[in-house]
TrEMBL record:
It comes from the Bacteria. SUPFAM superfamilies: Class II aaRS and biotin synthetases. GO terms for molecular function: biotin--[biotin carboxyl-carrier protein] ligase activity. InterPro entries: aa-tRNA-synth_II/BPL/LPL, Biotin_CoA_COase_ligase, BPL_LPL_catalytic. It holds the Pfam family BPL_LplA_LipB. Its EC number is 6.3.4.15. This is Biotin--[acetyl-CoA-carboxylase] ligase. Keywords: Ligase. It is an enzyme of class 6 (ligase).
Length: 211
């Protein structure tokens, strides 16, 4: 995986998508930055940035994804692979459905996914060094370059979705006191039923991750 390292950028996700659309970059490729001034969070919210945190976006050709991975499950899949990379450093981070990184009851980061041409583009923000009010930072000290290297090693293994999901569903109970959004409405995860494709059944409605 080629990694382009920048000192400062508005958004690694926006930048990478634009370069792919303009045919200046070709997947697989990644972009990281020391500072991000206009990061993108879930539901098009801004992601507040602190220097020294992890700002990373990467693109993979759709044809290179695991055979059993559906696009709507990609956020869970790639978030969980990063969670496992963090766990190797003894972090207690867990994944709030479908794409947020949490420590106990506070958010420490998140992931978004998009399709650009025939590529999956994933953007990751993680509070490694510092966190804005209402958030928290990572519970272990870690070298970003080492973390990224280990993360991409996990990705390159092309572990099947069913193997990742079998571990993710064991931790899904952690979501029971939290909420998600469906069609702009806040809904409780307390009674959510998790399906094998990573979607949820909440009050009879099938909800997919579209981030």
């Amino acid at each position: 995986m080629q990694i382009i390292c920048l000192d400062r950028i508005d958004s690694t996700q926006t930048y990478l998508k634009e370069q792919l659309q303009n045919k200046k970059f070709h997947a697989p490729i990644a972009v990281s930055a020391e500072l991000q001034t206009n990061g993108i969070g879930s539901r098009d919210n801004s992601w507040k940035s602190q220097k020294g945190n992890l700002f990373l976006s990467f693109a993979l050709p759709l044809e290179n994804l695991p055979d059993d991975l559906k696009i709507e499950s990609a956020s869970i899949y790639f978030a969980f692979l990063l969670k496992e990379a963090l766990a190797s450093f003894s972090s207690k981070v867990w994944i709030k459905w479908p794409n947020d990184f949490y420590l106990d009851d506070k958010k420490v980061g998140g992931m978004i996914t998009n399709i650009v041409d025939k590529n999956l583009v994933c953007g990751v923000g993680l509070n490694i060094a510092d966190a804005p009010d209402g958030f928290t930072k990572l519970d272990v000290e870690i070298d970003k370059k080492v973390l990224i290297k280990n993360y991409f090693k996990n990705i390159e293994k092309k572990v099947l979705w069913k193997q990742v999901f079998s571990k993710y569903k064991l931790e899904f109970y952690r979501n029971q006191n939290f909420f998600t959004h469906s069609n702009g409405v806040k809904v409780s995860l307390g009674d959510a039923e998790l399906y094998d494709d990573g979607s949820l059944n909440i009050n009879g409605e099938r909800i997919y991750s579209l981030r």
